[in-house]
Design brief:
Chain lengths: 192, 80
């Protein structure tokens, strides 16, 4: 099996794609899209699109990076379906779970001290599992901005462009994401 | 003019601060608020804590999650 030709260009080995990349791409997707059925569809679509586009593959990116790029674009398409509604109707306005009309903390979401040294890093797997579950409980677009910001290390301006949302949309989404995550992890990990 | 801001506004400014997006006025407003609000001070510390941990999440939760065999077979059937 040769993965590069005489010119040093990469070539594709579609017969090995699923063995070599399906778990990798699935983990990548499942971290960014909470619905596992959607995540599976995205991985399947990635391979199908790659298969259809195989003749156009120039070999300048490695097979793996090429597949990742296709997969990432599918994830962003999925996010865009959710952000389309925002462009049309504005952000869904529902009852504020965290603050009252004066903007004060509500009783049951007031932050409490977690009793940890906040500069320390937690290494326990269980903590990250809960953190991930809390993230999965956020609404789709809150998760989208959160993932793009913290998993992909993107700048807020670029996230706004990618999702076609305004900076003020971005801050509202990030605000709700962080508040939701904070309350969830406090309830399910620190105060358990 | 520095007016008082609410906890809702202060937590929003905290997030902007984390991303380096505060104006001078906003920075002063936030500082003034955090100086007298222990809840929002806790929020700002915990928010940063969550951001820092989220960046490392993929190293910690990945390994066990695999695509079910049946899906792999289905994909292969479509490809080859």
């Amino acid at each position: 099996m040769r993965e590069t030709d005489v010119m040093g260009n990469h070539s594709l080995q579609p017969e090995d794609w699923v063995d070599n990349y399906s778990d990798m791409l699935y983990r990548y997707t499942a971290m960014r899209v909470s619905d596992t059925e959607v995540a599976k569809d995205i991985v399947q679509d990635t391979f199908l699109s790659a298969w259809k586009a195989r003749d156009g593959y120039k070999g300048d990116a490695s097979e793996k990076n090429w597949l990742y790029t296709i997969c990432r674009n599918k994830i962003i398409d999925h996010y865009r379906k959710a952000s389309n509604n925002i462009a049309k109707q504005g952000i869904e306005d529902y009852e504020d779970l965290f603050f009252n009309e004066q903007g004060h903390w509500k009783q049951d979401t007031v932050p409490t001290d977690w009793g940890v040294t906040y500069t320390d890093t937690v290494e326990t797997k269980e903590f990250y599992k809960i953190l991930n579950e809390c993230k999965e409980n956020l609404k789709e677009l809150q998760q989208a901005v959160f993932s793009l910001k913290y998993f992909d290390d993107m700048k807020s301006e670029d996230i706004c462009k990618l999702l076609d949302i305004t900076p003020s949309n971005y801050w509202v989404l990030m605000h709700r994401a962080k508040l939701g995550l904070r309350t969830c992890i406090e309830k399910n990990w620190f105060n358990k | 003019m520095i007016g008082m801001i609410s906890c809702k506004e202060a937590t929003m400014l905290t997030l902007k601060k984390e991303e380096g997006k505060l104006s001078l006025i906003e920075r002063l407003k936030l500082k003034l608020h955090l100086g007298m609000c222990k809840f929002c001070t806790l929020f700002s510390i915990q928010s940063k804590y969550l951001s820092d941990h989220a960046k490392h999440m993929d190293e910690h939760i990945h390994s066990a999650n695999t695509l079910p065999e049946s899906d792999k077979i289905a994909i292969n059937r479509n490809l080859i």
